[in-house]
Structures are given as C-alpha cells and as structure tokens.
Specification:
By secondary structure, the chain is of the alpha/beta class. The chain contains ten helices and seven strands.
C-alpha cells in the first residue's frame, strides 16, 4: 500500500461513526510486522486512528502469521463462516483485485460478507508497475469500473489518488533505491528483473490508486 493511499483511506473512514464501521475486516491484511514496520503508514494512517476511536479490527489473510486473526482462503466455507460470524459492519479490501484471476468471484465473496448498510472500501492500482503476488493481471480500473464489479452496492465516493513518483520514493527510502538499481542490473531471476525494469517507467510519472467507498444495498 502506498503512503498517500493509506492516508486517504484513513481520512475517509474518519468520517464514519465507529458504530458504522465496527467490527471492520481488514482483508489481505498481511502480518503485524508488515503493517507496522515494512509499511508503517498502514498502521499510522488507517489502523491506529480506527482503534483509538474504538473500532474493532479483524485482520484476515490467506497466509497465517503474527497479527493475523483469521487465516485461510476466503472462498472456502470455513473461512467465510468465521468472517461472517464476526458480524462485520465494514470491510477494507486493498490491492487484491489485481492479484486474482477471477474478479467476479472475489466481488461475490465481498458481497456475501456484508449485510445491507455495510460499508466496503476497495482500492486497486490505476497507474502502477507490474507486481506479481503471485500474479498481477494488470487490472487497473477506475472507481466506476470497480463499482461495476459490485452491483449489489451503491457507490458513495470514488477517487483516483496520486501517490508520487519513483523519484519521490527514492528520496524517502535509500534502501528502496539501492534495491531498485541492483534489481535492474542483475537479470536473475527474469521475472524479478522485468518487475524492476518496469518501475523505471514511473521515474517521473505518478503512481495512482483507484479508491471506491461503497455501501451494501
């Protein structure tokens, strides 16, 4: 997740009363270390402000690990039942749709998770390099195109958030700069090399993320 994206999400969720959000399922959450150390803006911009307001957050991810409350495949009945048993009022689904081959299936799972009135916040890259995890379909929608996947929801707000350039990321992270340069010079493995080369297309071009806030009909 990019920094500007995280703070846009946090500011948007701050407009909702805690009772309208809690409990919130953070789908594809990764581990606590990822949220607080690798990408600390996730915790600072989104999670900590929510918990400070009394919003209970349930972290869910395909993989297991420290700081993940419910792990496993959301498409299985067992995991879906556990998530629904929490009675979620809201779901955060950030940067998942570009990594699945069957987008309607993920959209159907999100629809099943929420009752009428439930809030769904979805983000997907709009202008961003190829980044397989384990695949990247290069789905780069507008907010309206995200909404098209979710006909059982009304679109409350949509925005395309600018998130800086490769140059601005270099300025903020010498480690990222070193890794990017080394990755571009060493063509092994080929997939990682292509990913590093693709990032250079955003040297002065802005990364952008499509964000959609929706409510279940």
């Amino acid at each position: 997740m990019l920094r500007n994206e995280a703070y846009w999400i946090g500011e948007t969720l701050s407009r909702f009363a805690p009772a309208d959000l809690s409990p919130l399922i953070n789908l594809g959450s990764s581990t606590e270390a990822f949220r607080t150390v690798v990408q600390p803006h996730i915790d600072a911009g989104i999670l900590r402000p929510l918990t400070d307001r009394g919003v209970r957050i349930i972290h869910s991810d395909l993989a297991d690990g420290p700081g993940i409350d419910i792990s496993g495949d959301i498409y299985t009945g067992e995991v879906m039942d556990r998530l629904k048993a929490e009675g979620p009022c809201s779901v955060l689904c950030s940067n998942m749709f570009e990594h699945v081959s069957d987008r309607p299936r993920l959209a159907a799972a999100l629809t099943e998770l929420l009752s009428p009135g439930g809030i769904l916040l979805v983000t997907v890259p709009h202008s961003f390099p190829w980044h397989p995890d384990p695949l990247d379909t290069m789905y780069r929608p507008t907010p309206a195109q995200i909404h098209e996947l979710l006909p059982e929801f009304d679109l409350l707000e949509g925005a395309v958030v600018s998130c800086g350039t490769l140059v601005s990321r270099y300025c903020g992270s010498p480690r990222f700069m070193a890794a990017q340069i080394l990755g571009s010079l060493i063509p092994i493995p080929p997939g990682r090399w292509f990913r590093s080369l693709h990032h250079w297309c955003w040297l002065f071009r802005s990364y952008k993320v499509s964000c959609a806030v929706l409510v279940r009909k």
